[in-house]
Amino acid sequence: GAEAILKGTKVDGVYSSDPKKDPTAVKFPNLTYIEVLKKGLQVMDATATSLCMDNSLPIIVFDITTPGNVKRVVCGEAIGTIVKGE
What we know:
Blueprint: E1 5-9, E2 14-15, E3 27-28, E4 30-32, H1 33-39, H2 46-54, E5 59-63, H3 69-74, E6 81-84
Helix pairs in contact: 1-2
């Protein structure tokens, strides 16, 4: 009965590469499951991403180290990156 998977990380979403190592990394506000898999983005392992896709379960990736972000994401505020179907 889950509505989404919440993935707390040390960065504020999904990037083209590690933003702590690559200053040119680009943040993606929205992605599809297929984009995550094709680009090899490290949101979570490919099997977990595929299971979310098969069950139409969005993945919300957000910065868990920022105070108040858990409440913000649970309340539906648009933070981080949302991975879902087209």
